[in-house]
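Hypothesis: this fold can be encoded by more than one sequence.
Test: take the structure tokens below, design a sequence, compare later.
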């Protein structure tokens, strides 16, 4: 197993449970990949970017259960939004069944006008009518989410204050560069088909602490986790994959190899002979990447009471109240009066990549002063900025053509990573799905097939009744 991010850990744990002796190599001194945390020189733990889960992420939930981390996730039923005019909106399920469970909070959503809401409702009805598969999603190469919305005559306010707010955060890409099939899928699975799919789970501990159980689970079953060990090359004999090369000329061989590394790194490792033997591997360079920026701010006093907040019409997209979500690395209790730590998240942050650290801090601080009046009187104690230039693969229209399956045509070579063909975009759910699919492919090739992939969240409410009737009518 090469790579200790979510995809590699999911595959490694699943294979260890299936009786395989797993040796996992990770080049960094910690597990978790892009969904992990760092320790600053003063001992403060910071997540490289705030990662969350949703109620519809069934495989991620299963993975957390396998490694004993389910209790480290706190779920919230209410999503809060704030516009520059100070108008707050919220999304929270009421007593109505799906797909009408969010109707009342949507109707009262102050940042949207009545024309905005009516246009959104029309588009939602189209998603419902087609069960999340509108006909124009099947166009050659795909169409962008922005084009799909324009065809549904969405208002400017609806696009900027609803569709963009949800989807840029969920998919880490601007609407004009997002395949509409991914955007539609988010709303079908998270907001329409099940009344709990939208619930947001936030880790109550630093991200790195979520993976404590992975190493012990692999080692308990006879495996090994080796950190600070980058793969330097591949050993090829007679045109076939024969092993791995590490520093100081060390080599390792195995019965099977699962590469769970970014597609850019895999493309650099694979020799031309291997790429030529599998067309999918030859097109990895056609999958582009998208950035995420995290801004971490520590204030001398409490400036925010909500656990998290989404800002509208600003560069800053999400504010996470880390002091409220978990105790800090110094062991201070939640809600400590000594200060407050906030993490800001900006997805698809192309415009920030070349900006200096202080300029980004000043920009975000100015937006916070408008959104949270208490910030105006608070002192900024310290701040840091973490830019992930290649945080995710870009879900561009037609990108599905270039995403390889987990089982390659090269004997004993398997792939895991959210960029592989999972049916999901670049999310933690997608990463875990890829790991399970890679493990399934390996087990199947070894003659010991096992089902690991969890089914999607079952539709409920009127959606379940409607789909049930359609299924009965067609005899399926």
């Amino acid at each position: 197993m090469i790579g200790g991010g979510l995809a590699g850990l999911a595959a490694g744990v699943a294979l260890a449970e299936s009786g395989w002796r797993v040796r996992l190599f990770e080049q960094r001194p910690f597990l978790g990949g892009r969904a992990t945390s760092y320790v600053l020189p003063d001992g403060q733990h910071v997540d490289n970017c705030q990662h969350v889960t949703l109620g519809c992420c069934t495989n991620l939930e299963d993975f957390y259960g396998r490694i004993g981390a389910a209790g480290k996730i706190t779920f919230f039923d209410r999503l809060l939004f704030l516009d520059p005019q100070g108008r707050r909106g919220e999304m929270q399920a009421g007593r109505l069944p799906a797909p009408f469970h969010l109707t009342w909070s949507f109707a009262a959503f102050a940042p949207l006008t009545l024309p905005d809401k009516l246009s959104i409702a029309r588009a939602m009805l189209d998603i419902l009518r087609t069960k999340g598969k509108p006909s124009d999603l099947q166009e050659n190469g795909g169409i962008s989410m922005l084009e799909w919305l324009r065809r549904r005559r969405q208002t400017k306010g609806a696009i900027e204050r609803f569709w963009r707010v949800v989807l840029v955060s969920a998919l880490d890409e601007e609407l004009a560069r997002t395949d509409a099939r991914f955007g539609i899928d988010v709303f079908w699975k998270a907001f329409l088909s099940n009344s709990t799919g939208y619930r947001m789970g936030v880790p109550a501990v630093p991200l790195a602490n979520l993976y404590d159980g992975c190493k012990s689970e692999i080692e308990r079953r006879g495996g090994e986790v080796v950190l600070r060990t980058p793969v330097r090359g591949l050993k090829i004999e007679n045109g076939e994959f024969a092993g791995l090369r590490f520093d100081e000329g060390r080599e390792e061989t195995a019965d099977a190899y699962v590469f769970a590394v970014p597609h850019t790194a895999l493309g650099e490792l694979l020799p031309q002979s291997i790429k030529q033997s599998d067309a999918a591997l030859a097109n990895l360079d056609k999958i582009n990447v998208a950035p995420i920026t995290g801004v971490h701010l520590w204030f001398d006093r409490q400036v925010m009471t909500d656990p998290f907040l989404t800002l509208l019409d600003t560069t800053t997209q999400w504010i996470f109240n880390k002091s409220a979500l978990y105790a800090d690395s110094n062991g201070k209790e939640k809600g400590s009066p000594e200060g407050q730590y906030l993490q800001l998240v900006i997805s698809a942050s192309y415009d920030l990549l070349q900006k200096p650290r202080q300029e980004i801090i000043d920009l975000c601080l100015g937006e916070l002063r408008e959104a949270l009046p208490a910030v105006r009187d608070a002192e900024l104690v310290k701040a840091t900025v973490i830019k992930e230039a290649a945080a995710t693969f870009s879900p561009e229209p037609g990108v599905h053509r270039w995403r390889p399956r987990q089982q390659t045509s090269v004997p004993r070579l398997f792939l895991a990573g959210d960029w592989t063909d999972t049916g999901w975009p670049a999310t933690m759910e997608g990463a875990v799905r890829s790991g399970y699919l890679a493990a399934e492919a390996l087990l199947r090739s070894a003659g010991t097939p096992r089902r690991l992939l969890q089914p999607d969240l079952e539709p409920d409410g009127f959606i379940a009744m409607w789909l049930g009737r359609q299924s009965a009518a067609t005899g399926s």
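Confidence is low (pLDDT under 50) at residues 328-336. The longest strand covers residues 380-393.
Hypothesis status: open.
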